[in-house]
Design brief:
By secondary structure, the chain is an alpha/beta fold. Helices cover 16% and strands 35% of the residues. Strand 50 (416-419) and strand 51 form a beta hairpin. The chain contains eight helices and 51 strands. The chain folds into two domains: 2-250, Hexapeptide repeat proteins (UDP N-Acetylglucosamine Acyltransferase, domain 1, 3 Solenoid), CATH 2.160.10; 259-416 and 427-454, UDP N-Acetylglucosamine Acyltransferase, domain 1, CATH 2.160.10.
Length: 455
């Protein structure tokens, strides 16, 4: 069969690619228009490094649950291998193996609390993606923007490999590989690769690669900048080569393990899982792995030869290999834990890379907080004391001392402090409490305390 384009007849397969390329060019144009004041051109970073033919190699699928009304609307869109759950509307967009998770979307009749404002919702919240391309990008949670509590929008945005858009409405933005925007509304911004931003609302910013910024105006401000030249060995994105580095290589080396679970209709259970644990159908679990009670393993997580204690969780795109998590652990989206032993209640933030070695394992004490986008890659054994905050790039004991602080000492800070490339100002106790509250919330909604409150 053929389709007429102008005065030329082309095969249907060719016509489909023609339409995909037309959408892609429109997306590039719209993003560039939004970024004109920053004089940033996304074209060199995407035109030669995004294989549009992949759009025809995968199928999208939709999760159905009695807790969320079925509601989807796709218009003139390439969805590739995306997973949808919740109230979603996608138009004039390209989604390639992205996860669109709406299991925490707000519902009609809910009250959204923002500071001292109480906002009643008149309708169910909607994830609305328009004129955007999300390449292996995780979209999760719900809008924290008080101006749009019923609409989590992603518009005129390009996001590259393994970026996270977590409760973060976006208009006219570009996200580099492994960038994370968390609970932040963006407008006309460039977020460099491996940057993590949680800042409420940002506009017209060009964020350098490797920027870790957690800001709550009037309360605290945490800022760390990776040494750019050293970061490049882990992740670098150039117009000439696209995304490269150890993080890309690590995932590419294991991507074939996911082919089986996505190609097969029925899979045999490989391990025994307690009735009150949750193992997603689209997670990879390799021998010899133990999943304890109240554990959550999300889709596209990868577990190999590891132990997950009671109430631990492995969120989307996590890798846990040859490691032991004692329980109550949070492994946030995209985090990687290799050859490590984690005591109870350790939090490992988004896209962190904890790379212990078989002969020199990494040990992390009880109650530690590993900041999002932390890299620990040491050829010597490292032991992190309990209740410690760790950030940045750590490759030896000296760098661990420079890039960590006990939570008790952090709580004592009331003005400011700096260590190496890290600057903190504001209330340390408020910062610590905010993290602890969020960790507790994550554990609760993920079922870590299932039945415990009724005992």
């Amino acid at each position: 069969m053929e389709k007429l384009i102008g005065q030329t007849s082309v095969p249907i397969q060719g016509y489909a690619m023609y339409e995909i390329e037309k959408i892609f060019n429109r997306i590039i144009q719209r993003v560039n228009i939004n970024l004109r004041d920053l004089a940033f051109d996304v074209s060199p970073f995407v035109r030669d490094h995004i294989n549009l033919e992949k759009m025809s190699e995968f199928y999208a699928f939709y999760g159905i649950t009695t807790d969320i009304p079925l509601n989807l609307k796709f218009i003139h869109s390439g969805l590739a291998g995306s997973y949808f759950l919740g109230n979603c509307r996608i138009s004039n967009s390209l989604l390639y193996k992205s996860d669109i998770r709406g299991d925490e979307l707000k519902r009609k009749g809910d009250t959204f609390q923002y500071k001292h404002f109480s906002i009643d919702l008149a309708k169910d919240e909607l994830i609305d993606i328009e004129t955007s391309a999300l390449i292996k990008t995780l979209v999760h949670n719900y809008s924290h923007d008080p101006e749009t509590p019923e609409r989590f929008f992603i518009k005129d945005t390009l996001a590259l490999d393994y970026s996270n858009i977590h409760g973060a409405p976006s208009d006219g933005c570009f996200l580099g590989s492994f960038a994370t925007i968390d609970l932040t509304t963006m407008s006309d911004c460039v977020i460099g690769q491996y940057s993590y931003i949680q800042a409420g609302e940002i506009n017209h910013l060009n964020v350098e690669p490797g920027t870790i910024w957690v800001n709550s105006p009037g309360q605290f401000n945490f800022l760390y900048q990776y040494p750019i030249e050293r970061l490049k060995q882990y992740i670098h994105c150039s117009p000439e080569k696209g995304p490269t580095g150890l993080l890309i290589d690590f995932i590419e080396a294991r991507k074939d393990a996911f082919n089986t679970i996505f190609d097969a209709v029925n899979l045999e259970d490989t391990i025994k899982v307690p009735e009150n644990a949750s193992l997603d159908r689209y997670a990879v679990v390799l021998p010899s792995t133990t999943i304890s009670e109240n554990v959550l393993v999300a889709q596209r997580a990868y577990l190999e030869n590891s132990y997950l204690g009671r109430g631990a969780n492995a969120q989307e795109h996590c890798f846990i290999i040859n490691s032991r998590l004692e329980g109550g652990n949070v492994t946030a989206h995209g985090a990687k834990i290799i050859e490590a032993d984690l005591d109870e209640a350790v939090f490992v933030g988004f896209n962190s890379f904890l790379f212990g070695k078989p002969a020199h394992r990494l040990t992390i004490g009880k109650g530690c907080v590993i900041m999002p986008h932390t890299i620990i890659d040491s050829e010597e054994a490292l032991s992190i004391p309990q209740d410690t905050l760790v950030w940045g790039l750590v490759t030896n004991q000296q760098e661990l001392q420079e890039n960590s602080i006990s939570l008790e000492n952090l709580k004592k800070i009331e003005t400011h402090t700096n260590q190496g490339n890290m600057f903190f100002e504001g209330s340390g106790s408020t910062f610590v409490q905010a993290f602890k509250d969020r960790i507790q919330h994550i554990l609760e909604v993920n079922g870590a305390f299932f039945h415990e409150h009724n005992v």
